[in-house]
Amino acid sequence: MDATSSRRLAALGGHLVSASAVSEGGGAVVNEQMAGLGLNDTAATGSGVQQELQRLLEHDSFEERRRMKELMKSELFIPRYAVPLAEERELALQRLRVLCHSGNFRIEDFRVDPMRIFAAHECAAFADPSMATKMTVQFNLFGGTILKLGTQRHHDLLLRGITSLDDIGCFALTELGYGNNAVEMETTATFDAATDEFIIHTPTPLAQKYWITNSAIHAHWAVVFAQLLIGGTNHGIHGFLVPIRDKQDLRPCPGVRIEDMGHKMGCNGVDNGKLWFDRVRVPRSALLDAFSQVERDGSFRSVGSLEVLQALFVVREGRLLGQLVAAMKEGRSGPQASPAALLLRRVFDIWMRQQSDTVQHTAAAFAEREVLEACCRALAARSLSPALRALLEPVVRLYALHRLEQDLAWFLTEGLVPLASGTAVGEAARALCRQLAPHYRTLLDSFGIPDHLVAAPIAGDWAAYNEADNQGELLGQVW
Q: Which domains does the chain have, with CATH numbers?
């Protein structure tokens, strides 16, 4: 049995026994405990415990969250559905602009107080998923890359504008032919020593930057990832800051071709696009050079050899992912002096083509264990009140049982859960649902989503909402 599976089993094992007891009548004991704490009275759970649980769930940045939720009472944040594509995109941009100008977060918070930005993301998602997606690209992908890979000249140029949304950016990594597989990407950045410039170029249709958020209509800048070529030598993928639009009239810059990807199944406030670069010249300072530098004479310096780092990463992956060890060893077989690039290609082939299902299963198992352990740490905290602990403990067990039930076939076929115990999992989960049902309002209210951000007419005056032809929109005094 691999190490990941062992950790997962250890984390879940105790919960199976406890939940089975619930299905056999043990739930009465827990219900008595909850009753003794006043938790069978829904009114009792609607104030102090709800507020304590909300604070636990929100975790941080409480005042910033409150202010952002208040901002979203504005008419601008009322959901709109039957609107043209251009209007939906403009709504997402204007909503994001309001949050960016609120003073509740800034791009530098990633270094000094990252929880403020994470809180802003959560609040944005309450109101508009398209706005939240644009925010993620502006701050995390574009802004975060400038902050991490850029140096002072890049920070002086853009950080203030990233926070204010005066400089809108996109993250040009994925390519039509290769997704985010950086090893295969074709976009090039060739250093021209005569002019002290890089030439950004899209050599084939498969190299076009594809599905790039913010690029279709709003972005002024792109962080473009390209193969760095100097004097015929490929130094691997690096990031370059490339202007793609004039900030005044929003026309594409010379040599930049932008195609709008149009209407999607959802999140149509997000303007996804395709980017082509026809020998676009940018100054040498466009290289995001925190870890790699190109001098005026074309000499290249980097923190560590790329070949050595690639080999180290291969070894790390092989050792940490227990269930994939055998496959990794197979990929590393062959001549001892195999070039690092060939070694990496073999591992990539196994990782993406032969063992893709195992990789995804392992990732899900890791995430579920992390969530469960975080919940258990919260339950063990001394600051937790007895009333909240009595309410939260069955919620955590319900989560563990639900995830176990979803993957029950694997646990049974691996012989890790006896058949008799496996058949009890479903009923144990349902018993916990019945036990928690009287407290649903407390649990829901603890997420701290204000009424004005619950975009569902059925949550308001349903009868009054349907007295007039509203065309499905959330408008008028009823809302």
A: 169-289 (2.40.110.10)
